[in-house]
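Exercise 7b. Backbone tokens:
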């Protein structure tokens, strides 16, 4: 990886609930000298700290308030409150409207989140700028307020669907992206029948949005524990002519001048 690459580390990618050794949704995005924890699903804080301590983190992005995407945020609050690892510097957290009150209620202390986090609420079409990294929020359709994004740095784009059912916004998110990280919860072998749904996608739908959005590389994520991963990949590949990968805990993707590469790290 060069200093101009975008880098995505999969901290966890299990949809709806964790599996053995498989945390829920969470990613570490690194670009332009910035480090962003994207979604804070159960188990991802422990994985994050293996690679980036909270005092080295620049921001947190919470796509929505379903438990599999946010339940480790109150644990991060405790790390910052008790451990004092940032020396009083607030950590910016970007999330849907009311996210801080939601988390305050969880820890039963009004104003708790604002004591350690800089509380920022997202809006559709808003662009968050962190140094040379721009993250454009795009509202998706998931039953509650949810934001995917297009992260751009050095002329390269990493797109994230967050959780979503079929909607026009997904094509805008995927548009000409170098890497499109897209949910495919309605996968074969999962707990929900893999038919077209209102608030989640099948692998074939994910492939379709990657194709019509002219994405260069598709990575399926948010598959439930027990899903048939090989079949999910094949179904997406039937609709998308580019390369299809599957997110896996510990996997790392680098978006560079020669496209997307899977990074192999040594001990």
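Sequence design result:
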């Amino acid at each position: 990886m060069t200093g101009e690459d975008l880098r995505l580390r999969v901290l966890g990618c299990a949809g709806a609930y964790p599996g053995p050794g498989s945390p829920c949704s969470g990613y570490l995005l690194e670009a332009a000298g910035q480090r962003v924890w994207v979604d804070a699903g159960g188990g991802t804080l422990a994985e994050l700290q293996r690679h980036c301590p909270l005092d080295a983190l620049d921001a947190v992005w919470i796509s929505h308030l379903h438990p599999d995407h946010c339940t480790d945020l109150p644990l991060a609050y405790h790390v910052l409150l008790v451990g004092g690892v940032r020396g009083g510097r607030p950590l910016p957290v970007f999330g849907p409207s009311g996210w801080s009150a939601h988390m305050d209620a969880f820890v039963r202390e009004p104003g708790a989140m604002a004591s350690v986090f800089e509380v920022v609420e997202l809006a559709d079409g808003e662009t968050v700028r962190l140094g040379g990294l721009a993250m454009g929020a795009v509202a998706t359709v998931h039953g509650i307020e949810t934001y995917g994004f297009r992260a751009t740095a050095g002329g390269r784009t990493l797109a994230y669907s967050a959780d979503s059912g079929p909607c026009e916004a997904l094509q805008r998110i995927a548009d000409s992206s170098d890497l499109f990280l897209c949910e495919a919860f309605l996968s074969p072998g999962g707990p929900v029948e893999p038919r077209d749904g209102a608030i989640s996608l099948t692998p074939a739908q994910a492939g379709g949005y990657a194709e019509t959005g002219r994405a260069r590389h598709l990575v399926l994520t948010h598959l439930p524990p027990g899903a048939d991963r090989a079949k999910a990949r094949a179904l997406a590949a039937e609709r998308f002519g580019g390369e299809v990968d599957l997110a896996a805990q510990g996997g790392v993707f680098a978006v560079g001048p020669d496209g997307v590469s899977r990074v192999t790290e040594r001990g």
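Instructor comment: Residues 43 and 196 are 29 Å apart (CA to CA). The helical segments are 44-51, 67-70, 73-83, 99-107, 112-116, 168-174, 203-212, 229-239.
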